[in-house]
Amino acid sequence: MDKSVVTGLAPLDAPKHADGVAYVCSIAAAALGALALWIPSGYSIGAVGLLLCSFWLLLKHGLPRLSVWEWALICTMFAYSIVWMIDALLRGDGVPGMDQASRFLFAIPVLLGVAHITLRWDLIWLGVGAGGYGALGIAVFQVYQNGMVRASGFIGPEPFGNICALLASLSLLGAIWLHNEKRHPMLYLMTALGGFAAVAALVLSSTRAGWLALFPVLLIALVLLWVQAKGQQRLTVTASILVVLMLVGGLLLEPIGERVNATYSDLNNYFEGIGHPQSVGNRFELWKGSLHLFSQSPWLGWGTEAYRIEMGNLAESGYIKGDPNGANHAHNELIDALAKKGLLGGVLVLLIYIVPGLLFLRCFMQSSNNSRQILSIAGLAVVITSGLYGMAHTALENNAGVMNYAFWMSLLIGSVCARASE
Fold first, then answer.
1. Do residues 202 and 161 make contact, with C-beta atoms less than 8 angstroms apart?
2. Pairing with 46, which of 24, 151, 164, 258 sits 20 to 30 Å away (CA)?
3. Phi/psi class of residue 39: alpha, beta or left (left: φ > 0; alpha: ψ in -120 to 50)?
4. 417 vs 422: CA distance, rounded Å
């Protein structure tokens, strides 16, 4: 395998301009993480830069050589976008409703373009870590200065928490990558602290689905650290993590406790039939109603507008406890797709997570290089955080969620898995 894929150094036979384009693409990728949450639509800036660089690379070099797996993913992304866009045009919000699904179409050139170059992952990881600091900065300002109950950035508390979980995952895995590549200790320390800053911002957003999404990635990162560390290093790593977790936990004990107590209260009241369903109970009602609608129209679903109307009718009839004006989504990626787009939509939602997940797992299993394995796990982290978050929300139905998932997934597939296929 070409060692340059994981070291961040240009291959010896690369054209002279390749270094410059790779550097610009790496800066754009770093901006995707660094600017994600603390400025309005910050996540779009890096994405646009990546898209422009990728168009140039494709015009210059044409299509890269890809395996059947990568082409299967591209077909899945294309199919998802087309089905969602046609449905939005015919049964949804029209042209504005096509915007979110189109992000997968725009991410395809990124996958193809970055397969031609070697990205500077050291720069990208530092950018992601900086994004964690930015997320914590705006979260602290909103909660402690403006008195907001939940940090939301400029995109709302739920999407904010989702992207915080993603930044935390990538920052911690990036720090492990930097350590494995024997970069300066300050680099991986700053990146790791950026990850913990993103965790703190996630807590301040009170997004419980984000906490759920982050937990398995943290376990994977801890296992990686333990495997890579040797002897005395293991004790140092363990002690450092415990100290940081104690500090973060101590500072954020109150918001964590409040959300845990609220969850327990919601569940207890819902199952005992006390009062109107709150946050957790409301999700159960939405799932119940959405699955009922799916059973009535399993092949094509209802479409966005009809779904909203029918959910309102179910609430008025007493079948579910909810808003008579209807619900916009089912608070679950798969159930929402089944209700609105039928079996085809449900299958495509599963594939948009399963196909890249299997591809990253394949890259991990086939590589003996530690750095490339870490990058493959970072790709899995992107799939895991978005997929688990989507169990309680609709990650792909908001601009920040779908943009970050599509572009980070394409970036990692193209630069790690696709380049290794050449």
1. yes
2. 151
3. beta
4. 9
Q: Tell me what percent of the residues of the chain surpass a pLDDT of 90.
A: 58
- Longest alpha-carbon distance in the chain: 70
Helix (H) or strand (E) holding 49: helix 42-61
Residues 329 and 84: beta-carbon distance below 8 Å: no
Is 108:76 a contact under the CB 8 Å cutoff? no
Instruction: Indicate the pLDDT class of residue 418, thresholds 50, 70 and 90.
Output: low
Verdict on whether the full-model pTM lies above 0.70: yes
The Cα-based distances of 363 to 287, 357, 372, 388, 414 in angstroms read 35, 10, 8, 22, 12
The CB-based long-range contact list for 345-353 (8 Å cut-off, 24+ gap) reads 345/83, 345/84, 345/87, 345/301, 348/76, 348/79, 348/80, 348/83, 349/80, 349/396, 351/76, 351/80, 352/76, 352/77, 352/80, 352/104, 352/396, 353/383, 353/386, 353/387, 353/390
Q: Quote the distance between the C-alpha of residue 310 and its chain's center.
A: 30
Q: How far apart are CA 252 and CA 146, in angstroms?
A: 17
179, with CB counted inside 10 A (0-12, 13-18, 19+), is: buried
Instruction: Count CB atoms within 10 A of the CB of residue 60.
Output: 13
Instruction: For residue 172, give the nearest of 105, 220, 137, 117 by alpha carbon.
Output: 220
CA distances 253 to 151, 200, 203, 262, 301, Å, are: 16, 11, 9, 14, 43
Q: Within 13 Å of residue 403, how many CA atoms lie on the same side as its CB?
A: 24
pLDDT digits (tens, 9 = 90+) for 360-401: 999 999 888 888 999 999 999 999 999 999 998 888 988 999
d(CA 345, CA 293): 14
**Contacts for 420 with CB less than 8 Å, ≥ 6 apart:** 1, 2, 5, 363, 366, 367, 372
Tens of pLDDT, residues 299-335: 999 998 999 999 999 988 888 887 777 778 889 999 9
Rg (CA), the chain: 22
Within 181-252, residue ranges assigned H as helices are: 185-205, 208-228, 232-251
CA 28 to chain centre: 17
